Amino acid sequence: MSGDRDDAFEDASAGRLFDARLVRRLVPFARPHRRPLLAAIAALFGLFAAELAAPYLVRLAVDGPISRGDSRGFLSVAGIFAGVVLLAAALRTAEGIAMNRAGQGIVRDLRVSLFAHLQRLHVGFYDRTSVGRLVTRVTSDVENLAEIFTSGVAMVLYDATKVLGAAVVLVWIEPRLAALAIALTPLLLGVSLWFRKRARFSHREVRRTIGRLNAYLQEAIGGIRVIQMFGRERKVQRRFGGLLQDYLRANLLAAFHFALFLPLIDQAVSLIWGTSFLAGGNAVLDGRLTIGAFLQFWLTLEVFAGPIREIGEKWNVLQAAMASAERIVRILDTEPAVLPPARPRRPERLAGAIELRGVTFSYDGERPVLRGVSFAVRPGETVAIVGATGAGKSTVLSLLLRLYDPQEGAVLVDGIDVREWEPTDLRSRIGLVLQDVFLFAGTVRENLALGRPSATEDRLRAAVGAVGAEEFLARRPGGLDAAVAERGVTFSSGERQLLAFARALAGDPGIVVLDEATANVDTETERRIQQGIRELLRGRTSLVVAHRLSTIREASRILVFHHGAIRESGTHEELLATGGIYARLYRLQFGLAP
Amino acid sequence: MRRFRRCLRAFARHKGELIAGAGCLVVASALDVGIPLLVARGLNRLEAAVRAAEPLAVSRDFLFFTVGAIVLGTALKGIFRYGQRYLLIGVSRKVEADLKRDLFAHLTSLSPRFFAASRTGDLLSRATGDLEAVRLFLGPGSMYAASTLLLVPAALAAMVHFHPLLTALVLLPLGALAFSMKAIMPTLNRRSESVQAALAEISERAQENFSGVRVVKGLAREEWETRRFASSSDVYRRHQLSLGTARALNHTLLYASKDVAFLLILLIGGLGLLRGSFPVGGIYLFLDYVNRLFWPLIALGWMAGMYHRAAAGMDRVEEIFATRPEVEDPREPAAVDSIRGGVEFRDLTFAYDGEPALKGIRLRAEPGQVIGIAGRIGSGKTTLVSLLGRLFPVPDGTVFLDGTDLNRIPLRRLRESIGFVPQDSFLFSETIRENLAFGFDDLPTAEAVARAAEAAGLGPDLAALPQGLDTLLGERGVTLSGGQRQRVAIGRALLQDPRILVLDDALSAVDTETEAGILERLRRGSRGRTVFLVAQRLSAVEFADRIVVLDAGRIVEEGTHAELLLKEGWYARTWRRQRVEGELESLR
Fold first, then answer.
1. Superfamily for B343-586?
2. H or E element at residue A553
3. Is B428 in the A-facing interface, judged by CB distances under 8 Å?
4. Looking at beta carbons, which residues of chain A come within 8 Å of B441?
5. Which of B77, B79, B214, B250 would best serve as a mutation to test chain A binding (most A beta carbons within 10 A)?
6. For A36-88, how does the pLDDT look when each residue is reduced to its tens digit (9 = 90+)?
7. What is the pLDDT of residue B336?
């Protein structure tokens, strides 16, 4: 299963903490936002200075004014202290705002670039990838990835500086004491990293077991009829109970790790702290250290240990960010299989001649859907394609639009291979109506215009009028500006088809490509649809996958597809007279007795 | 709290752990307050020693003793904190599991109609998200609240003892914070909702685009779509920035109030120290307690939000529990010895709600007869056979099994006597063997399973699978074709050796040749078994003893295949059309 492979990949790649290649690939997305990023980093360094200054001021106060009983001196030190604290608060706010600005900027750019890249990938890519996964890529993966630049680089840089800076200050205060405290930090580091590993493991277990549990729940809901008909309620309850037990065990394991973590960290801190208290206290008693210096040491030790304590958490964040980055880069590095030509041709006018020359095509590279298909459509002609399900009719349309490239042969429009056309230019000259009409969420107007500059108000109204969609649109509040829900579910299938005709007409296309829907509609709607089709096809080269007798009869020529090849060709009367596949299909479709 | 009754009962089942956990919590909280007192004492002594030049040996011993006590106290506290967290969070997990188990058991008793009326995603979110919200409130939420409520008075008492005025002063910034949080929270919530909404829009846009990729490409709308997506992304960014600003201000406020409290302590404490009226240990104590109380006090404010989410979640869960099963065991069951398989529908009219799906159905099947049921999509075929197993409430006096009203037969007995092959040939993500044996609590013999698989025409398929019967199906295993799935579902029903077999359009995805084989084996193997065959493809019902054609819930045609062909009705027309279709298919 492709899904499984992807999951396995996700887990395997999660082992990496830092991948320079990935980061280098992504730096261009961060570059435009370097100003807020650098501002945030600068603020962080200011904050760092303030954090180290505060303990020093405590020392100054204790050893100076306080020991002398000089309240004025004390107040002035306290004043400076207050200033430092307020400055730190301001810096923290500035850092928060700037970092958010940088992060959100990166998220926005990456998201749009990723989306734009996905738009360039060909339809075959989408056939292989689940929509859910792609949505995850442009939503949560992008957000995770941005952490590399925000909490990742900035915090790692900042934390490393903080630990080193604090260590220097500690040594400056009392080298022997500092050596003692620093020598004990591996203890803290060990606990933090041990926990990171365990936390990841138990998290994964929890995710895995809850995934199974929910999948089973979902499955049981889907199979409720079978469960009840077989009287197996108890059995599935037992099975659910078993999965629940696994889930509970994973959660208890996680609870165990989490419950253990803080006490262990506390213990490590208290050991470091107790040792330095003991040693420091002795130094004070010996007169080697003033009380103020002792306090400074103590407070700076906190600055030193803080980042080490949290290293595990940040490690995991960064790791998740790297995994997301890997998944995103994999998409960004996927080359579109249907490439625009190096020197695309964009003829001024489209005459509308279509030709297929010996086209063979297969979706999976194994079973051919079209085998050596050749035919030509002259400008202005309407050609209907008929055939049983799976005969390859719709595939012809996809190839004409260059959604795929054929393995053999060529598709030509106005005598030019579609692979030499600029794809967007070609497609925007073709009016397309698919079987399953897809409307975008938005308004009717947006759906008809699709952002084409040529789709003026007048033309939209004319198109709506021509296909006979005026009446039902007038009944909707807002008319052309009526809201369209996702996939157009608020419109009936007949209405959706009429809108699709209007959409195609609004672009004033040189070629019309129509995949007729077979949906059941009432007689009145059917009459309107037939009228709409007539309007749409009038005077345009058109290729129609046809199901309607009216459409077929009015076509200049009918091509009968069977198992990926053209078996018959001619007008309705000619084909009926031959008594071949078409004659049979005709009887079948229109219910005439044999 | 009344709405959480069900949870409290579940908690009561874990009384022992609950009490032990609470005990740990009390001890750990006491140590939390006590250890800083030790430190403070040590600091005071150190300061006094330096001032008064006490004999060094005495001070050293004292220092050593104090530090030892602190490290030991921290270790003890760690053990109790660990016990508290592990026990209490563990109990909350167990309660969650209990509730989930009960909820699932209840769900399995509800009729398919309930599931048709609810969205699966919604049910899932009640069983997961809602229960999690309840757990967070009753478990970790209450635990932190309890420990805060223990800490605050104890710490405050100690602080008042040392310096009443400073205590009052320190509480001022905290109070101001609580007050301003109240003012800023609605803004924060509003903005974070806008962010959520903007993200939802982005993901809907992406979803729409990716699933409509053919249209997007076919209409050359990539650029337009990218522009639309970019504008949604811009909106999202704008909302995030405004949320970020509010958050940064909120953080500043949080930290600033703590900073102000610290400044006050250092200022007043320092002045006291300099005048000799306040010991250095006191300063330490205040700093430590304020630090320790700060987050829990703020977190108490979040409890309100947690409570609301939990309450809403619990209400949604209780809504499911309040739904009663529509079909229940008879109160006065009839004595049923052996079931022969005679079925009678006596003027059955049935409606899901509103318009009846079945109207005045009269149909009799003698034991051993094969009844074919045909008709358009939505004509009531599936409803008719579903009622046979009482998947929906059957009106009294309308359906009889061996002359006994269906509603008086024990449910399990009834359903075990029916072998059911559903339209969607639903299978579990388990092995083929487990699927075949679904109707049994214990695995039947390998022979019986193999026989059923053979009868269902699975032989060649199993031979092609390396793991045969032990092949895992579903997302983590192998995906079977529609026809294979249908055959596994048939084998599952056959393995039960039921008196009545129901095939609800169960051969639609099987090719005509295999269909003929399966039907042949069914006919031979099921002598004396009553069979109901629902079919779209009429070739499957041709051999039935009697065929009924449903239209809009009524029987409109009835008879044998030959009789129906003569009637020139829907059956005859459809049969001919399908013949032409079949011919066309076989054309090469």
1. P-loop containing nucleotide triphosphate hydrolases (3.40.50.300)
2. helix A549-554
3. yes
4. 234-235
5. B214
6. 999 999 999 999 999 899 999 989 988 888 888 888 899 999 999 999 998 99
7. 83
